[in-house]
Request: fold
Amino acid sequence: MFMSNIRNFTKKHRKILLTVVIMLCFGVVGSFAKGAQTQQQQGITPEILEAYDQAVTDAYAANGEADTWSYEVASSMASLLSYVYSLYYQAFGQVSATDSTTATGYYLKSLSYMEDAMEAYERTIETMPEETDNATKVNTYASYAELAFITGHNDKAAAAYETAMGIEKTTNLVLSYASYLATAENPTASVTYLTEYLNELPAESEDRAAVEGYIEYYTSYAEYLAGLESETEGEGEGETEGEGEGENAAN
Reply:
C-alpha cells in the first residue's frame, strides 16, 4: 500500500521518497533511523511528534543561532533533528494509505527537519576538532551528504562524499554513495558502481553479501521506476487522445 501511494507524488518527489525508504529501512550510515524504527514498532502518534517538536523548539531556545554553536552543541542538534525527521517520515509511511492530507503534512515536515539537520551538520563540520577520529569524521560527512542529496543539494552531497572517501572508504560509505547515485543519476548507475566495488572485495570479505543485496535491490528499483515511467507515458497518451477526440466531435 505504501509503495503504491508513491504514484500520487510528482516524479521528483517519487525519487526522494524511494531514496529515503532506502536510507531508513536499511540504515546505511547514520544511526538515527534505528531509533525511529524502534519507535514505529510502538506506533508514532501525534502526541509523540508534538513532544519532539517541543524538544526541538526548546533546544533552539537554549542554544541560540546555529552560527554560534560549538562542536558539541552542533553535533547534538544534528542528531536530534535527524532523529525527528526520521520520525516524521515513518509517521508519513504509517498513514499514507489511509489519510493523504495528514501524510502530506508529515512528509513536508520531514523535509523541513532535513533542511534543519543539514544546517546543523554544516556547523558540525565547521567546528569539528582536527583530532576527531576518522570513523566520526566519515559518519559526519556521510550523514551530511545523505541529507544534502535527499533535499536536492547534489553538488554539496558530491563534495561531502568525496571528502569522506578521502578519509576512509568503508563499505557503509560505499552503500550510502550508491543511494546518492540512484537519485543524482539513476539506480542503474548504483548497480554499476556497486558491481565494481564488489569486484574489489576479497572473496572472503563479510561485506560481499551486503553489497550483493544492494545490487539486487537497485536492480529491482530500476525496474520499478521503469514501470512508473511507462504508466505515466500511458496516462499522457490517453489524455492526448481523449482531447483530440473531443475536439473532433466539437468540429
Notes: The chain has one domain: 6-235.
